[in-house]
Amino acid sequence: MATDPIIYALAHVIPGKEQGRPGPERAYGELLFVLYMALTGAVGSHRRAARILGHPDHWIATRTAASQRGFALPAQPPRRWNCEDARRRVLRVQGRQAPDTGLTEILRARAAALWCERAHKHGALAGGTRSNVDPARGNTVYGDGKVTSSMFGPKARRARRAAGLQVDGSTHVQGGDNGTSTHGLKFMHVGVRPNDRPNSRLILDMRYVPHSGYGGEAGIAVDALLDLAAREPGATTLCYDGALRGTHLQALADAGYLVFSPPHGSTAKPHALETVTSCACGDTHRLMTVDGYVAERVITDTGTTTDVRCTLLKLSANRRQNSYAWYLEVELSCGNLRRFRVNKPSPDGPLRIERLRQAAKDESDDSAVYNRIYGRREDAESVNNILERTLHGGRSISPSAIGQFLVMLGHALARNAYTELLWQRDHAESPPPIAA
Ligand SMILES: [Zn+2]
User: Fold this and answer.
1) 360, 393, 416 — which closes off a domain?
2) Shared-domain flag, residues 66 and 192
3) Mean pLDDT of all residues in 196-200
4) Is the pLDDT of residue 162 over 80?
5) Is position 369 within any domain?
6) How far is the CA of 345 from the centre of ligand 1 (A)?
């Protein structure tokens, strides 16, 4: 971590002690804070991170690496209180409460920009390679929410709150599971993988999901993904679980994302899409949406109705300025074509994209684009699994939202530093690229 330039870039954005203000000079400076944050995210415990940093051998290596990058660190290894002091000063902790100083957002935004640069270096997010049939691995981003359960049980939470201590968190019902609820703090992350090489994953963003006011996980995910799309034309494809609703999908499709996200519950059930009365064949076609795709309702020989999936001919996107219009072309039972705008604007009524997706699962065709691409989302679950295993006791390690957010940000810093190290090792033997 002490060789990772992103650590130093973040140390530079933290304001130092103002000249003339009372208080001792910061012997360890802002760099110790960033190293401590990343190491805590790597090992999942503040105590362990401080012990590792304070080990004389580690400190010599850290100090040497830092001095090569223009940061002077004291010869004496830091003690745990130096680390905690650095953290509290940066967070401007007053007494026992940690207010949000806005600094975490500055750190997050700077880190996200640098992680995108790194993704480019590793071959991901390359622009000009949009494909709706075969989107590249490196152009496919994925996101997921993660609840880190509270470090205290209900009784201890009440006792701590009664004593005036900060205990953030709320009850989250895990979507997709069997509806189990967890008390804790929620975050969401976005990531990408340049290729299928192991450990090549990069986390591109990590955000805190407040309990109310920001649209929950899906709202925060849309914010993060729209920011990413605005900055990175190469972020063309998205895999997300069923947490996204019509309004989220519409915003993401409008921004250019080809979204792979399964409909579920009532949105997956058959709904009328359109009755085609103007077909050249003279027949009327009753079109439905089922599980995100277009189907035609036909009457069988026995008089019952059944919904037959229409053959998908083409998915295309028209770009006008920075907004994309997505069209599906399907074949009707008579052989004629029908074209639909998937992200059709609908100021008042329900959005079509809630039930009709740009790409939907196809049980009968393994080569369908959804079946090939949606599995890339598993990388997001791997991120969650590693987090769960890393955090001490599998729980939050800070009682405050801001404190735990720094742990999550630190985890992303650490994972991305590790990916960078492996990337450098893999690219060390190949000859340097010829200068243009
Ligand atoms: Zn027809």
Assistant:
1) 360
2) no
3) 90
4) yes
5) no
6) 26
Please report whether residue 195 resides in a domain: yes
Domain stop point among 62, 91, 120: 91
For residues 55 and 136, membership in a common domain is answered with no
Q: Which pairs from 45-52 meet CB under 8 Å and 24+ separation?
A: 45/392, 45/397, 46/83, 46/84, 46/397, 46/398, 47/80, 48/392, 49/83, 50/78, 50/79, 50/80, 50/83, 50/84, 51/80
In the reported structure, the alpha carbon of residue 341 is separated from the centroid of ligand 1 by a whole-number distance in angstroms of 19
* Distance from the alpha carbon of residue 288 to the mean position of ligand 1, in angstroms: 15
Q: To the nearest whole number, what is the mean pLDDT of the chain?
A: 92
Calculate how far, in angstroms, residue 337's C-alpha sits from the geometric centre of ligand 1: 8
pLDDT, position 90: 74
Binning pLDDT at 50, 70 and 90, where does residue 73 land?
very high
Find the domain containing 379 and state its range: 103-262+374-427
User: Rounded to whole angstroms, how far apart are CA atoms 86 and 312?
Assistant: 58
Q: What mean pLDDT is predicted for residues 276-302? A: 95
Residue 396 has pLDDT above 70, yes or no: yes
C-alpha 333 to ligand 1 mean position (Å): 7
Q: How many domains does the chain have?
A: 3
Q: How far is the CA of 287 from the centre of ligand 1 (A)?
A: 11
Residue 268 Cα to ligand 1 middle (Å): 25
- Please give the distance, rounded to the nearest whole angstrom, from the Cα atom of residue 329 to the centre of ligand 1: 14
